[in-house]
Amino acid sequence: MHVPKLTFAFALVASVAAGQEMPNPQAMQMQVQKIAQERPREAEAAARAFIMLIAPDRAEGPRSLDSLKVRSLDLYWMEVAQLTVQFDMVQNLNRRDSVRAQLVARMFGLEAYARELQRAYRTATEPQRGTFRTQLETLIGSHFDIENQLRALEIKDIERRLAEVRADTQRRIEKRAEFVKWSVDDIIRDATRPQ
Predict the structure, then answer these.
(1) Of 1, 107, 116, 145, which residue is most buried, by most CB within 10 angstroms?
(2) DSSP code, position 57
(3) Is residue 93 within 8 Å of residue 106, measured between CB atoms?
(4) By three-state DSSP, how is residue 54 classified?
């Protein structure tokens, strides 16, 4: 089963921008493929819950998971699997940083729309493809803006950590004599301790 590149590229950018360790794309792809092949019921429930969160207008109607299921069971399960993996990523991130988790969830909502347009593009006429391309440009532009918001948060975190390190270094410089005395005292104590 083929997993489109669109499926993972944005998730990697999202997690890097969110200050996480970069997920292994092969592991993510394997996880998506495993879900798509095994088709567990809990994955459907997770995907439906996540779609309600990130793209509520896709919960019912012609753009819903159910309409995709009618068109192609394989595409349906690939979308369910992708949404399930993304849902898990957002939940894990939310435990550490709810602000970033909300931004990443918005990005994943845009990605769900992009995957929908990607599927529609394959069978579209030339005039429809032009419309889809314009819609994709808008979506990807919004996605890019959220990525920049995540990067700005990361910059603030780095600047905060840098200020803390600078302050600690300055404190150590100012209290050098005390630190040296304490270290020497510890060494002498260890040297004179009975064995």
Answers:
(1) 107
(2) G
(3) no
(4) helix
Contact, 18 vs 100, CB < 8 A? yes
CA dihedral sign of residues 169, 171, 177, 178: negative
Quote the CA–CA distance of 99 and 37 in Å, as a whole number.
Answer: 33
Size of the chain in residues:
195
* Eight-state DSSP code of residue 69: H
Q: What pTM does this model have? A: 0.77
Q: Tokens for 22? A: 């970069």
| Cα–Cα distance measured from residue 91 to residue 38, given in angstroms and rounded to the nearest whole number | 22
Tell me how far apart the alpha carbons of residues 177 and 184 are, in angstroms, rounded to a whole number: 11
For residue 59, give the DSSP letter.
S
How far apart CA 85 and CA 80 sit, in angstroms, is: 9
The token pair at 161 is 């950590």
- Residue 4 has which token pair? 């489109």
Start-to-end C-alpha separation, the chain: 66
Averaged pLDDT, groups of 10, the chain, 195 residues long: 49 49 77 94 94 88 87 93 94 93 95 93 94 96 96 96 97 94 92 80
Tell me the torsion sign for CA atoms 73, 105, 121, 4: negative
